[in-house]
Amino acid sequence: MVENTQAPTRAELVRRAAELVPLLRAHAAWTEENRRLHEETVEAMADAGIFKLRTPTRYGGYEADTRTLVDVATELGRGDASSSWVASVYWIPTWMTCLFPDEVQDEVFSVPNARVCGTLSPSATATPVDGGVRVNGKWGFISGALHAQWQEVIAILIPPEGEPYPIMALVPLSELLIVDDWHTSGLKGTGSVSTVAQNLFIPQQRVLPLPMVLQGQHASKSNADSPIYRAPLLPVASASSVGTLLGAANAARDIFFKRLPNRKITYTAYESQREAPLTHLQVAEAAMKIDQAEFHAHRLATLVDTKGVDGTAWKLEERARARADLGAVVRLAKEAVEIYAAASGGASIYSDVPIQRVLRDVQAVNLHALMHPNTNAELYGRVLCGLEPNTLYI
């Protein structure tokens, strides 16, 4: 454990992220081709403190609020959506790690820039044994697994008596088998491979009941009074994720306007695309969608941060709205990128024109089970209609 240090301000962390944009862009094509982050990207983000945002200050971390996460991920996303996505994914399981007993955190954060990947999918089973549980199963979509030291896993515990229930546990990556199966159309650079546990023993101190976690309860004494660890998991995860989409939409805007001055509209009299009224309508609509996405992202972060500070209980409608804000950002960002992509002309299908990578990346995020706009909107509407949510993930 290290002595508490003064954490950088939000403005400083956003500045550091912005300075990474040229490097992320330079490695974006390599990252996509090789289906993992470039080592220089990982090292640069580590040097900038990106992986410390959700680490407690007693370990040299920054305990940054979710608005900081949104703004930092937005800058990273301007450089490369896959890099921003992996950083965001690390923030969520790192935050979850801070819910475990303090001795477990001592172990995880014993190395600088500890990186924890993870999942919320209960695609494994666990059985109780002396001193812990034994787990078998496979988890997919584990973004950042190729660069992490730990994985947070979810499994269904089958007790000798009573009903099965989901648990959350921490496992060193060295104890899991990595399956290189990440062959996708979007977010290729995230290296979201599958991991497998084969008769894996996990000590009891590294196991928590997932229902307790979803309700905002935890086992850490040292983090009990910290505002950022008071919120329920799903609003935290939602706020941690949206910045990547804002960044991708801004990247599409940057790419489009960089090409705009030298582009004609073929088979028309327009010598410059920027002279066409259609272009004016397109860029205005896309810009407004990005503005709307930013509103929902910031409203979500403000809700999480404000309730963390004042400690008030979360209402069901607030939890559902957090998911709805997440879905709105995802939808609006995709719509904005689609406008820029559609207006980019036939030459944009060449692989060295990055707008097509940005488009594939946002399309991939829109298919994510917890980020799908329709799923999140339906959940919010269901709660607004006075019905109980049909999911634990709220």
If you had to describe this structure to a student in words, what would you say it looks like?
Strands 1, 2, 3, 4, 5, 6, 7 and 8 form an 8-stranded mixed sheet that branches. The longest helix is centred in the last third of the chain and has 34 residues, at 277-310. It contains 11 helices and 8 strands. The protein folds into 3 domains: 10-108, Butyryl-Coa Dehydrogenase, subunit A, domain 1, CATH 1.10.540.10; 116-208, Butyryl-CoA Dehydrogenase, subunit A, domain 2; 230-384, Butyryl-CoA Dehydrogenase, subunit A, domain 3 (Up-down Bundle), CATH 1.20.140. It is of the alpha+beta class.
State the gist of this model.
With 394 residues, this protein is of the alpha+beta class. It has helices spanning 10-34, 39-47, 66-79, 81-97, 102-108, 210-214, 233-259, 277-310, 316-342, 355-366, 373-384, and strands at 116-118, 124-129, 132-142, 150-157, 165-172, 177-179, 193-203, 207-209.
Core attributes:
394 residues, alpha+beta, Butyryl-Coa Dehydrogenase, subunit A, domain 1, Butyryl-CoA Dehydrogenase, subunit A, domain 2, Butyryl-CoA Dehydrogenase, subunit A, domain 3, 3 domains, eight-stranded mixed sheet, 11 helices, 8 strands, 48% helix, 13% strand
Level-2 CATH architecture of the largest domain: Up-down Bundle
| Through-space gap between termini | 34 Å
CATH topology of the largest domain: Butyryl-CoA Dehydrogenase, subunit A, domain 3
- The outline comes out as globular
Percent of residues in β-strands: 5-15%
Question: What is the CATH class designation of the largest domain?
Answer: Mainly Alpha
Q: Let me know the largest β-sheet.
A: 8 strands, mixed
Rg from alpha-carbon coordinates:
21 Å
Q: How many independent structural domains?
A: 3
Give the SSE string. HHHHHEEEEEEEEHHHHHH
